[in-house]
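1st attempt posting a full record on here, be nice pls
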Amino acid sequence: DRPVPVDMRAIRALKKSPLALDLYAWATYRTSYLRESAHIPWEYLQMQFGADYAESAEGRRNFKKKIIAALEKVSKVYAQLRIDAEEDHLVLRPSRPHIPRLGGAE
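the predicted structure (as tokens):
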């Protein structure tokens, strides 16, 4: 219904990291309609991206480390992405789209 284009160069650069690919697609989609900062608890992210991690303090720590490492890879290919890891949550801020919208509107 509302496709969000992705940069195939980014897909190729991230192809060896399934988590980074998932996060790139997720961030590209989320920022396409985001108008104000979104605070996403680590638990919600773990439910969406970390089914293989234990639901324990150690499992959450390991998951958080993996997400942060994957987001560093994503940020290298999507430099306009404004995202920060906080203690209790991830903060996704409105960002320029990775692929400019048709007609030059952002």
